[in-house]
Amino acid sequence: MSILKPRASRNPEVADKRRRSLFWMLGAGISTALASTTGFARAASGTGDASAAGEELAIRKLHRAYEQALDSGQYDEVIGLFADDAEVVFNGESFHRRSQGVSRLYGERFRAGKIGKRMEQAPGFEVDAERRRESVKVSADRLTATALFPFSIQVGAPIETDSSLASMARLHGEGVRTWWEGGEYDVSYVKAADGSWKIGRLEYRTLSRANYRAGRSHATRIPA
Amino acid sequence: MRIPMHRFQYTKLTSDQIATKLRAAESGPTSVSPFTNVLNGQSLRIVTQDGPTLAYRFGNDKRLTLSENNGGNVSAAYGELTLNQIVFFSHLIPGTQRGYNVYIDQDTKLVTVFEVWLSSGITSGTGANQFTLDDREVQRQIYFGYVDNGQAAPAQLHHYTNRIAGKGLYWKQDTGIETLEFYASVANTNFVELTRHIDNLSWVSTSDYVLVDDRTFIYDRTECEFSGIHTTFVADLYNVQQVGARFGFNEKDEFEYYLFRGDGKVVGQLAYLEPFDERGLVPTWAGGNAPPAKGARATYRPVRTFTHMTDAAMQAAADSSTVAFGGGPPTDAPPAGMAANNMPFSDILVGKTFTLRFDHGGPVRDYRVTDMYKLSYRDQGDGVWHDVDYRAYEGDDNLAWFGHIITGSNPRAATLAAIDFTNGLATSIECHMGTPYYGNETTYRAIFGVVEIEGLETPLYKRHELTHELVGHAFSWSYSDQTTSMHLYSSPHSMSWTIFTGNQTMGAQWCSPCLYVKLRPGVYLFCQNEEACNGAQMTELINTNISHDCGFSFTGSAAGVRLNLVGAIGRHIGKFDILGYYGPQKRDEA
């Protein structure tokens, strides 16, 4: 195109090109992470090593897939990791069946509260190291398993108000009051007919919570 | 124009009416400045990322032919202006309600394309609150691309940016139109049309910001919820010049389609608070897991869900329930919501008996205060004593700031009064339910006078006054750890507020009229009503010496009337040097 004058570039804005490249690299990184999650789910589908160690590894990968999906807000992916008749206990409430209570919990409450994003523990409110261990026990017949996994996540709830501040914040996915919770997942797994592992029951046991968000220098107690 | 933009009753133009008016514009855009001719006789093929491929042939008579995605050729009139290395051209597609605004960087061969269209049929909201956008609201979709000369696709394209965030500019177009534009959000503009709106109120419109290079950016704003008109331009911040286009319907339902040049001046820069490694590459409306729909933008449309109440219905609700501060003294519960970071209550009035005498026949009220949360008052007009709940702050040394409901008032009213016990001055923000538009909005005014109390000489002439001292300043106000808004005091009679995203990028924004009163150096009253929004009134004493405010909210709804508390910790975010643009001015005829 002749109109494009062959002038030497005076200002290629190198810095911004680098930023753009970084953006694309980050995009690739996100894709890799998601592919990895899919890989976890496939591994958890039971097509790998059927030894006890292999089953334990599959359970751990399934849990990593669960955490990864929660962390990235892929709540539909989370729901897909549960058995049809699964139960989740969250904040003392029980939610039954994947297509009903479990879907409502993750698809509505977790999504609205932006719950599940990984966080570092709130300073001064850390869960005892002894309660942060992982354990996986696979039954002798390798059809069921139990596990304990620690968690350290963001928990939240929509700010219930008609104020313009909250409704405007919702325009960009905010308007949510968030805090930190740490504890352990007490999980039971079942092997599905196709040989894949599914979460049969998952209970959030919150051991500590605090008013804390990433980047803050301090945490404070949440009033009862 | 003197009717506030959010009060103006814009015609619901139909798609057919729009089509008729667009046909009259098929001769292309106009321009006060001479069109440039860089594109004459040229052919170029523009490839965009996630968008169309556009093949253009330009004639020598301001006409072009376009093939979209290798489709058939259409012929259209166009206009063209250049700014430095940027060629900007604009055209509609005859027989449709859409067109393109295209910016080509002749140095890098990078292109930013705005597809614009009317009668979108786009729906917004959910459930019972779902509605279809007005046909007159211009939609836009931005595509980043390059001129394809057979070379390898460039690795970097133009991109969204936060580099313009916080900047303020004055612009004067070749049309004579003057604006102040505050880019105090990555997704909006707070702007003042100095030559169009007689009161110089500031308004908020959805915007996009695209970075070309360090000195050049591309911009748009669409006056959603107002006339729906769309403005776009490329700006050179070295020489502070712009070229762009205005496209859409104004408040008189006239179709405006013209190109313009403009010269400007940077009037200031606000700090932006996001992390230093946040570049604003992803717009606030595009951060979800799913790709955004064509035309997506984050537009605040508050009046769509604001329930209209008549004055009578509002008064009935007020008679049923009017509550100040929850009723009774404070509980042990920690302060929350908009008052979590409030200033403490003060006993500054306890033990005092005094009279507030306001000028020009204003009310004269006697007070007897023996308690920190309940007082007795009477209006000398009727002489009846009333016991009411109140809250008081000491907003500055020996300066009381308190509020209470006016008992039995119709429409329901409240007084929010500052009393300077050092200087003998008093100011009341007198507020009541109802505006000419909604029974459940509030009306407010400032009245000035004195406090009469034993031992204090009362001034005869000295008074608190309305002030412009805050105009141009911006403060963030953190009402709680998770609720912060930035107030930009954008004109003598209006302001905007901006909500931060999760990483403290300035995002959603809206605006309202307001007033400012100076109490002392650095100490002010600020009052605004979120009119055509939710009707809520906020009245704050701002003490800039301690960067803290404290005050009251006054609201009405079907649930009744509430006088509540508001208070926040502030940060001074910056200041625009704009006072000289306001007030009565000599102006050249446009």
Structure overview:
The complex is a heterodimer of chains A (224) and B (590). Chain A is globular, with a radius of gyration of 22 Å. Chain A has helices spanning 14-44, 52-71, 75-79, 97-113, 164-171, and strands spanning 82-90, 93-96, 135-138, 144-158, 176-191, 197-210. Chain A has a 6-stranded mixed sheet with strand order 2-1-6-5-4-3. In chain A, 36% of the residues lie in helices and 28% in strands. In chain A, helix 1 packs across helix 2 (52-71). Chain A contains 5 helices and 6 strands, in the order αααββαββαββ. The longest helix of chain A has 31 residues, at 14-44. The N and C termini of chain A lie far apart (69 Å). The model of chain B has no long low-confidence stretch (mean pLDDT 95). Chain B has a 20-stranded mixed sheet that branches. In chain B, strands 25-24-23-22-30-29-28-27-26 form a 9-stranded antiparallel sheet. An 8-stranded antiparallel beta barrel of chain B has the order 2-3-4-5-6-7-8-11. Chain B is elongated, with a radius of gyration of 27 Å. Classes of the chains: A alpha+beta (224), B mainly beta (590). The interface between A and B is large, with 38 and 55 residues.
